[in-house]
Amino acid sequence: MKEISPTLKEFCRRQELMRVAYTDGRGYPRAVPVWFVVVEDEYYFGTDRESAKWKAIERDSRVGWVIDGGAKDKYKGASMYGAAEEVKDDAVRERVREAMGLKYFGSADHPEFVKIFGEANDPGTVYLRLKAEDGLFWEY
């Protein structure tokens, strides 16, 4: 896979939403916005263990994702595909949870964040690491 430029890496890291595409339980493609974080150059997002999104990804881990934005004539983005894998290591889960809380609420202890993602290592929350196989990038 072609290397992503440092400016595009930083741009992607700062964006609020990523759109993740997967195949739903009836075989249809679905694309949904998710909160995400980048930890050590890897993309992660979280979801409820009972969500249709998780159940579909658990059946078929092949996913695509897009992070894009910018003002007119200054568009940037990354579109990648690969696999989503559940993060089972408690230390990595906690790092991802802390990063998510900080990015979206200023702290993983914020009551609204805890309401959505639960306490540390909550069994009802699944964190997924996106492992890119290939993709394309643009800055124009």
**What class, by secondary structure content?**
alpha+beta
So what's the CATH class of the domain at 6-86 and 124-139? Mainly Beta
Mean pLDDT: 94
Q: Strand sequence of the main sheet, in spatial order?
A: 2-1-5-6-7-4-3
The CATH architecture designation of the domain at 6-86 and 124-139 is: Roll
CATH topology of the domain at 6-86 and 124-139: Pnp Oxidase, Chain A
Apparent shape: globular
Tell me the number of strands: 7
Query: What's the Cα radius of gyration?
Result: 15 Å
Task: Describe the protein's architecture and organization.
- With 140 residues, the protein is of the alpha+beta class.
- It has 4 helices and 7 strands.
- A hairpin with a 5-residue loop joins strand 1 and strand 2.
- It is globular, with a radius of gyration of 15 Å.
- The mean pLDDT is 94.
In short:
This protein is of the alpha+beta class and 140 residues long. The chain is built from 4 helices and 7 strands.
Search tags:
alpha+beta; 7-stranded antiparallel beta sheet; single chain; globular; 140 residues
Would you spell out the secondary-structure blueprint of this structure?
Blueprint: H1 6-14, E1 18-23, E2 29-34, E3 37-39, E4 42-48, H2 52-59, E5 62-69, E6 76-86, H3 90-105, H4 111-117, E7 125-139
Antiparallel strand pairs: 1-2, 1-5, 3-4, 4-7, 5-6, 6-7
Helix pairs in contact: 3-4
